[in-house]
Amino acid sequence: MRPTFLSILMLLECSASAQTLDERIAAARQTIVKEPAKAQGYNELAAVLARKCRETANLDFCKQGEDAVTQSLKISPNNFDGQHARVPILLVEQRYAEALDEARRLNKKIPDDNSLYGFMADAEMALGEYAEAEKSAQWMIDMRQVNAPGLQRGARVRELLGYTDGALEWWGSALRLTTAADTEERAWILTQMARLNLTIGKTEPADKQLQQALVLEPEYPYALEQLASARMAQGMPGEAVDLLQRRLNRSVSIPAMYELALAIEKTGDTAKAAEAFEKFHNAAMDAETRPDNANRELILYFADHGRSKEAVSLAQRELARRKDIATLDAAAWAMYRNGSASEAKKLSDRALATGSKDLGIAKHGELISAQFKALAGKSAQ
After folding, report:
1. pTM
2. Residue 54: φ, ψ to 5°
3. For the segment 194-206, what is each residue's pLDDT rounded down to a tens digit?
4. In terms of Cα–Cα distance, which of 132, 165, 137 is closest to 151?
5. DSSP 23-40
6. Which residues of 305-316 are buried (b: 16+ CB within 10 A; e: fewer)?
7. Burial degree of 74 (CB within 10 A; 0-12, 13-18, 19+)
8. Of 143, 215, 311, 322, most Cβ neighbours within 10 A?
9. Torsion angle, CA of 271/273/279/281, rounded to 10 degrees?
10. How far is CA 233 from CA 197, 229, 240, in A?
C-alpha cells in the first residue's frame, strides 16, 4: 500500500534536510497558490504547521493547520492524507480521544502506515491506556527497527513503566538517528531526556542536555520550562522565575504560569506570588472546559490553597476524560487534602501501579499512605 504524505514527512525528518520549518511552510503555501483546487498543498501545509506548533508551543499554528485540513477535505472529502494530517493536530490540541478514534479508524484502512501507530501510542499514553500504548509502540518497531519516531514512543512507554535506564537508552538511540539538520527534533529529544532525568532526581545530566537543546534552538519553550524545573530542584527559584518569564514571552502556557507562581512563592515574595497565582487561576478557569486546559495544575492549586472540595470536584470531572498517571496523582492529592484518605490511597496506588519512578508522584504516595495508615490506626482503636 502507498505511504501517506505524513509518513513520508516523518521519514524525511530523520534524513538530511536543509529546509527550515518556515521554508517548508512557505513552499506548501506556494503549492496552494499554484494548485488551489488540489488537496495536496493543504495536506503538506497542515503537516508542517503541526511541527511549527510544537516548535513554538503556539496553538495558533495548529488552528491554521486545522483550517488547511478543512480546506483539503472540502476539496476531496475522503482523501486519506487530509484525514491523516488532522491527527497530530488533534494531539497537540490535547483532543486525545478524538485523535485516538481517528487514528484507529485510519489504521483499519491502511494497517501498514507506521506513523499511525505512533499517533495511537501518543493518545493512549495521554489517556492512561498504557497496555495499548505499549502494543502500538511495539508495532512501530516491529514494522521498521531503524525508526526514530518509534524509538521515541518506546522510550516514553518504558519511562511510564519504570524502566528509566532503558528509556534513556532509547531516547539516545532516537537522537543518533535524527539528522543534525533537524535542530528542533534534536532539541525536543534532548529536552525529553532531561525531563526524564529530572523526574528521577538527576539534575546534572539534565542541565547539560537542556543547555545543548538551547544551543540548537535558542529560547526553546520546553527546554526553558525544564531548565526552570532544574533550577527549582537546585534551590535557585530566582533563576527559575527568570527562565519561566522568558518561556512565557514566547507563547501563552497556563501550566507554565502555574510553575512561575510556584517559583515566585519560593523566592519569598508573597505579594508577587499571590498576583501570579491569581493570574494563573483566571486563565485556568477560562480554559477549564477546553481540551487544551490546565486542569491538573488547577487541581493542585485548589488542593494546596484551601479549596480542596473544588479540587476534588474538578479531579472527578478530569478523571472522566483521562486516567493517565499525572491525572491520577493530581486527583489523589486532591482527595488527600480533602481528608478522603481511602479514595486518595486508591488513586495513588493506581498512579504508582505502572512502576513509574517519578519522585514527585512517589512523594505524594508516601504522604497519602501515611495519612491512610494513621486514620486506619485511629479507627481500629
Report:
1. 0.90
2. -70, -40
3. 999 999 999 999 9
4. 137
5. HHHHHHHHHHHH-TT-SH
6. eebbebbbebbe
7. exposed
8. 311
9. -120
10. 12, 6, 10
- The one-letter amino acid code at 186 reads R
Residue 20, pLDDT score:
85
- AA letter at 221: P
For 4, 349, 374, the CA distances from 370, given in Å and listed in that order, are 53, 13, 6
Distance CA 200, CA 326 (A): 15
Q: Are the beta carbons of 51 and 20 closer than 8 angstroms?
A: no
Tens of pLDDT along 157-191? Answer: 999 999 999 999 999 999 999 999 999 999 999 99
Give the three cell numbers for residue 280. Answer: 494563573
Please name the residue that has the C-alpha cell 522565575: 241
For CA atoms 251, 257, 263, 265, give the dihedral sign: positive
**What DSSP designation does 182 have?**
-
Q: Which domains are present in the chain?
A: 1-93 (1.25.40), 111-141+153-161 (no CATH), 287-381 (1.25.40)
List Cα–Cα distances, 380 to 344, 367, 373, 377, in angstroms. 19, 20, 10, 5
